[in-house]
Input
Amino acid sequence: MKRRVIFNNKLLPYLLLAPQLAITLVFFFWPAFQAIYQSVLMQDPFGLRSQFVWFDNFTVALSNPLYLESVKRTFLFAFSVTAIAMTSALLLAFLADKQIRGAGVYKVLLIWPYAVAPAVAAVLWLFIFHPSIGFLGRFLREIGVLWDYKLNGGQAMLLVILASSWKQVSYNFLFFLAALQSIPKSVLEAASIDGASSRRRFWTIVFPLISPTSFFLLVVNMVYSFFDTFGVIHALTGGGPAKATETLIYKVYSDGVLHLDLGGSSAQSVILMIIVIGLTAIQFRFIERKVHY
Amino acid sequence: MVKRCKGFVFALATAALIMILAGPVWAQKVELQFWHGLAQPLGGLLEKIAADFSASQDKYHVNATFKGSYPDTMVAAIAAYRAGNAPHIVQMFEVGTATMMAAREAIKPLHEMMRESGVPFDPRAYIPAVRGYYSLPDGRMMSMPFNSSTAVMFYNKDAFRKAGLDPEKPPRTWAELRAAAQRIRAANAANVGFTTSWPTWTQFEQFSAIHDTPLASKANGMEGMDAVLMINSPLHVRHVQMLMDMQKEGSFKYGGRDSQADALFPSGEAAIIHGSSGLRARIVREAKFDWGVAMLPFYDDVKGAPKNSIIGGASFWTMTAPKRTAEEYRGVVEFFRFISQPDVVSKWHMETGFLPITFGGFERTQAQGYYRANPGTDIPYRQLTRTEPSENSRGLRLGNMPEIRTIIQEELEKALQGQQTAQQALDSAVARGNVVLRTFERVNR
Output
């Protein structure tokens, strides 16, 4: 018997796909092409005069020491956020995976922060760490720590890293928990019978088995810290003090929206676009092939 | 049943649509869109003026809408222009002036609109420091001034008394200010001797005007887009060095960017602050001590000092759009005429603390005895009009000025944190600022 498609109509599949395709075209492809187009132009904010300048905007951005510092800062930020968000999520998932009373409640509570909007999350952190209105900020000052993230760049960076990581822990937690639960119990039991300690079981069995999930999360977390942390930074520090928390995405915003330099800002977003395409390509090519059970 | 329901909803929607489309015809008034960037309570007072205008005649209706902060309003107006849908009038902060002027096709210059409408209009009604800021070098006014402020010094009289200083003799010069701040700290009359709000505006823009020293070449950019910053002059370096020295000895505290330092004065934390004349309203409301207002200090060994200070605040720009009619521009002219009446100017000045921008408005306020009843409220006006503006104190017109303000603040912060010398900070601010100016020049050529 020959397998047949149920609908012979050639048009129908396209019609069914059309709404999704339209959304993708209008909200993803069109802005992306606009950004590429703008990035080779020099234009006044009103769009009255534009010149085609080839790759001048890119040269200007890449030869600007402030931009290069922002690149370094962004990678430091992204690695820190990814490391903190993933290790703490793995630890929490490992603990929640055990047979404990009320595990369901823990799980629900741990997933909650994911539902908090970035700006709201930032305000919550502000109420904790603000040097004069935050209770922990005030406490730090009382015990003699010169806590003032509004003037101290290092402290400001620490704060946005912590707030951004906290937002992402829930997401990682869900994936890690699912990965842990999918590990066959028999393998773990066999190891226990052979006398492997809990730590040894983790490093030799659990960790390799969840590595596909870990690599997936690595990419997702990197992309998250590159792009989705804008709200947290905007509400907490606004990129300051003295550019100490200005990541690449924040610089795109301040150059494009605040300083009305559309060409330069578009060139920077095209660079960001290339970084993300690179990350995704790595995920598909390298990770999918090299990570095996 | 369901079908009938649908039909009913459809009929209702059609009726609503017809009403929306027919609305303006039915009202028989020309609708003028006016976007502003003043939050409450100022925004409400401004909307009241627009409503008063609409009620004062039956041809035009001004629809005033709050569009967020000044930068937000600017971005919104630009985006609307690009979509062919710009508002008739937009309120633009003073540092956006150069950007608006460079967008020749997007704006309808005030002088042109007034000439075409035949309405008599005399720019000399405006005080020179206001007029000059929004005029071309040949004196033609480009936008309608409205809410203007200037920077002044507020000081805590109780703290002065406690430190053994004469509360009726605020410091006139920087040397006196430093000595007073030191005395205040030595007597522990306040936690902070001196601080400043709007660091770039007060310590660079106002400072340069008062000392008749250029902030940038080409008459601070008024005479050409090829201006370069000149804030690394010996006088500017000397001033930043003094702020650094004062910080080191504990008599000055940096209070943050833009208006962040404002809070330090009404709470009693700082005894002396340089800030916008508009800060007055907040001090009246919050301060629980005796305070005074004085003019900004100057270095008395600088030739030509003290000159008049310059303005801040915003003005109203008329924007163009496809299909905009002469009748609509005429409505804008009528609205502008309404808001420049001495009574309206005087009322706005007394209600908000912004300056009386016309001579008539000042005289009207004076005639009502307002300045005698509220001592110090005329200081901003007197400081702004104390001399005829020179080319260094007419104002500034630098492209992408908001970005340059940020750059200066960043370099100043680095110097105050001890990461660089005063000379390095200002050299670096000039170099970075000039890149911004060249980009603006290239884009708008």
Notes: The CA atoms of residues 212 and 291 of chain A lie 6 Å apart.
